[in-house]
UniProtKB/TrEMBL annotation:
Name the record gives this protein: Multicomponent Na+:H+ antiporter subunit G
Main location per the UniProt record: membrane
Subcellular location: Membrane
Keywords: Antiport, Membrane, Transmembrane, Transmembrane helix, Transport
Amino acid sequence: MSVIISIIIGFLLLFGAFLSLVTAFGLLRLPDVYTRNHAASKAATLGVMSILLGTFLYFYSEHGHFNSKLLLAIVFIFITAPVAGHLISRAAYHSGVKLWDKSVQDDLKHKKEYEEKARS
């Protein structure tokens, strides 16, 4: 295995581990459900994808083994994780979970008021 590929693999694995660590800190430190969900869906998605890509490159360059399952996992996570995060946030908003006190903007507030007026 060449030195350049080893450096790229090491970078991808360390970057993925770093983003997973950022996700853990975000889940512990952020104030409300929406910002925690943002940290979990964005950073964890990129972290896991980086680790899977580094693993794919390692096995392909070291052993010549092309693993399509790793590529499919990357595509699956890339598509499903942000959508799931969005749906969790929407469900939390519609079930009445409050925003953080220092939140500046509520983009769905007018839509929610309009729907409540239409129901009455």
